[in-house]
Amino acid sequence: MSIKVDILHQVMKQRGENMLPLERQNRIKELVFERINMKISELSKELDVSEMTVHRDLKSLIDEGFVVKTFGGITLAQKYHKRQDVSTTNNCIICHHHITERLSYRLILHHHHVESLCCAHCGLIRQHQLGEEVMQAFCHDFLRHTTISATIAWYVMGTSVDIHCCQPQVLTFERREEAEKFVKGFGGQLLTFTEATRRLMNHMTGSDGSGTRCQNHDTSG
Ligand SMILES: [Zn+2]
Ligand SMILES: [Zn+2]
After folding, report:
1. Residue 131 C-alpha to ligand 2 middle, in angstroms?
2. Domains, the chain, ordered by start
3. Which of 3, 32, 90, 122 has the fewest C-beta atoms lying within 10 Å of its C-beta?
4. Residues whose CB is under 5 A from ligand 2 (ion)?
5. Ligand nearest to the CA of 121
6. Cα of 83 to ligand 2 centre, how many Å?
């Protein structure tokens, strides 16, 4: 019994008050990006911190214009809402694949622009291209389908599972343990954001010695 409580305590410790303010703000961004509207009490529960801490964390997000204050809560600034209308192109900026929500990768840029990419493969390439222009990037946990911050996600490359998107495939996970388990079951390599970007860029330029270039981006022929 007490072991269980200890574990629970450890898990709790990694959250909330023991997280750095920047980590909590990142988590708030993920939550609001996914749910659009959130109450202060919900955030306090989700992050396991006091409402006062939530208010403190929110200040910079409000100043930044990422969220807007509402009665008892916050809402994602209109400019960051996912485009709902089907008339606007719903294809990847890089490869023109149709974008499937659960695989999609989103880049929040300066001047309120949002770019959508079909998967983490195109997402990482685009983010690398845009560099400093990217303020925030979101992807989805491959198993849970939750929205996560791309820079702190775990990446799996070279797995045997076919996601029917760009090659080499890049899958994203929120939790390292789950990504590790996935690799055990389906193969591939576990990488951080930086490692995955580097590996992908090397692959694309052929400097990893593979000599193969991404089929989706190789227009020479
Ligand atoms: Zn793409
Ligand atoms: Zn793709």
Report:
1. 20
2. 14-78 (1.10.10.10), 101-205 (no CATH)
3. 3
4. 118-119, 121-122, 165-166
5. 2
6. 19
Instruction: Using alpha carbons, list the distances in angstroms from residue 90 to 94, 107, 117, 119.
Output: 12, 14, 9, 13
Rounded distance from Cα 136 to ligand 1 centre (Å): 18
- Strand stretches in the chain, DSSP E: 37-39, 67-70, 73-76, 105-109, 114-117, 134-140, 147-149, 154-157, 170-173, 189-191
pTM assigned to the model: 0.69
Matching residue, tokens 């410790």: 13
Cα 79 to ligand 2 centroid, rounded to whole Å: 25
- Give the up-direction half-sphere exposure of residue 137: CA atoms within 13 A in the CB hemisphere: 24
- Ligand with an atom nearest the CA of residue 126: 1
Express each pLDDT in 94-131 by its tens digit: 998 999 989 999 999 887 788 999 999 999 999 999 99
User: Which ligand has the minimum distance to the alpha carbon of residue 163?
Assistant: 2
Q: Both tokens of residue 37? A: 């509207």
